[in-house]
Specification:
The chain is globular, with a radius of gyration of 21 Å. The longest helix has 14 residues. The protein folds into two domains: 192 residues, 3-Layer(aba) Sandwich (Rossmann fold); 100 residues, Putative methyltransferase TM0872, insert domain (DNA polymerase, domain 1). The protein is built from 13 helices and seven strands. The chain is of the alpha/beta class and 311 residues long. Helices cover 40% and strands 16% of the residues. β2, α3 and β3 form a beta-alpha-beta unit. α7 packs across α8, α7 crosses α10 and α8 crosses α9. The chain has a seven-stranded mixed beta sheet, sandwiched between helices.
């Protein structure tokens, strides 16, 4: 399985450049996947540098071990990036020079049919990045109609969430919903013809269920703040997002970290004493036309990066 794990790293050059890798620095790849971005960091690290590769997918951990296991600079951790403070403490790291998180689903997860992420191939309706806990099928077959609608509407930003949830509940009463194409057909049949013309009709529903199954937005802002806290002064946090909900959470968290004086404008002098903890390197970066020609999955990717000014 490890040899088949692949991931086309999006915004590769932009991301590695944003970290300003120093040869003897300490870096953390919070979502290491197949090791694409990690390899770029290692190319710029010297013998005295260190890289912590984190991933919660056991397939990714196997791939990372096969790829980097013999490199003394690399520590591979099977865990969730939400535990970054404990992970670094366990590895005697007081602060990192750079931290990266690529929040997208890996190419391996999408292209391996049995993982159940894709609506293009028939497979068990799974979608679990960690291979643990309830599956997407479990949600479709057990949640009340109102909860299904809330998930699809909130995480998929799907305007037909109510009709999709209603049809899921109706169909499961006769036959359990167990496969990706079974769900994709249900979603498609829940929409008017005009709504099926712009992209795959199941895309938003699959996104919503994947986010719920994996808790992708649970405490995302808190996790980003934890990553920032784990930086040394002058360290850099770079995060790649793939949909508006993720990007909004990261944008707002970075704005909060960059916030300075909050005194009313009529105050002649600052009395709150607040100064920015961070500074943006740039507003955001998106994939170039050349990259999109090679990798359409980069079309919605945004890279945001912040420098830590103080604790």
């Amino acid at each position: 399985m490890s040899e088949s794990f692949s991931h086309i790293p999006v915004l590769y050059e932009e991301t590695i450049d944003s970290l300003h890798v120093v040869p003897d620095g300490v870096y953390v790849d919070c979502t290491a996947g197949g090791g694409g971005h990690s390899a770029g960091i290692l190319e710029r690290l010297g013998d005295g540098g260190r890289l912590i590769c984190i991933d919660r997918d056991p397939d990714a951990v196997a791939a990372l071990t096969a790829r980097f296991g013999s490199d003394a600079r690399v520590t591979i951790v099977h865990d969730n990036y939400s535990n970054i403070k404990r992970i670094l403490e366990d590895n005697d790291i007081g602060g990192a020079d750079g931290i990266l998180a690529d929040l997208g689903v890996s190419s391996h997860q999408l292209d391996t049919a049995e993982r159940g992420f894709s609506f293009h191939n028939d497979a068990p309706l799974d979608m679990r990045m960690s291979r643990e806990g309830p599956t997407a099928a479990d949600l479709c077959n057990t949640l009340p109609k109102e909860e299904l609608a809330r998930i699809i509407r909130t995480y998929g930003e799907e305007r037909y969430a109510n009709s999709i949830a209603e049809r899921i509940v109706k169909e499961r009463a006769f036959t359990p919903i167990e496969t990706t194409l079974q769900l994709a057909k249900i979603v498609s049949e829940s929409m008017p013809a005009k709504a099926r013309r712009n992209g795959h009709p199941a895309r938003r529903t699959f996104q919503a269920l994947r986010i719920e199954v994996n808790g992708e937005l649970d405490s995302l802002a808190e996790s980003a703040e934890d990553m920032f806290d784990c930086l040394k002064t002058g360290g850099i946090l770079s995060i790649i997002t793939f949909h508006s909900l993720e990007d909004r959470a990261i944008k707002q968290e970075f704005a909060k970290l960059c916030e300075g004086c909050t005194c009313p404008p009529e105050f002649p002098v600052c009395v709150c004493g607040k100064t920015p903890r961070g500074e943006l390197q740039f507003k955001f970066k998106a994939a170039s036309e050349d990259e999109l020609d090679d990798n359409q999955r980069a079309r919605s990717a945004k890279l945001r990066s912040i420098i830590k000014l103080k604790d």
